[in-house]
């Protein structure tokens, strides 16, 4: 019985940590969010959050928040290439996302999650 309760608790914590939306894009000086970052947030929610966590804290994929992605890829073009081409167990998104969407999601991970 304890194992069952522990298993339910673990699943509940995991599901709870994955629930919700990724962090909002901050408002700019004009009171509106940057439209490219807003697009990047939508792409992240649909294609990235399941593996990297809704806030970029990692999971199946590595952590992206708190400067991790910028530390791993100081040059944004290197990060764009990983998203487009894939790396290790991460799939390629070049055929699923446009170049514009890839640019937007990389900016979102660097500017909002970091």
Structure in words:
The protein has about 110 residues and is mainly α. The protein has one domain: Cytochrome c-like domain (Cytochrome Bc1 Complex, Chain D, domain 2), CATH 1.10.760.10. The protein is built from six helices and no strands.
Summed up:
The protein has 114 residues and is mainly alpha-helical.
What's the shape? globular
At the fold tier of CATH, the topology name is Cytochrome Bc1 Complex, Chain D, domain 2
Question: Number of domains in the coordinates?
Answer: 1
Q: Cα distance, first to last residue?
A: 41 Å
Total E-strand runs: 0
What's the SSE pattern?
A: HHHHHH
Give the C-level CATH assignment: Mainly Alpha
Radius of gyration: 16 Å
CATH architecture: Orthogonal Bundle
Structural class estimated from helices and strands: mainly alpha
Helix proportion: 55-70%
Biggest sheet overview: none
Which whole number gives the mean pLDDT? 87
Low-confidence runs of at least 5 consecutive residues:
4-18
Proportion of beta-strand residues = under 5%
Name the CATH superfamily assignment. Cytochrome c-like domain
Number of helical regions: 6
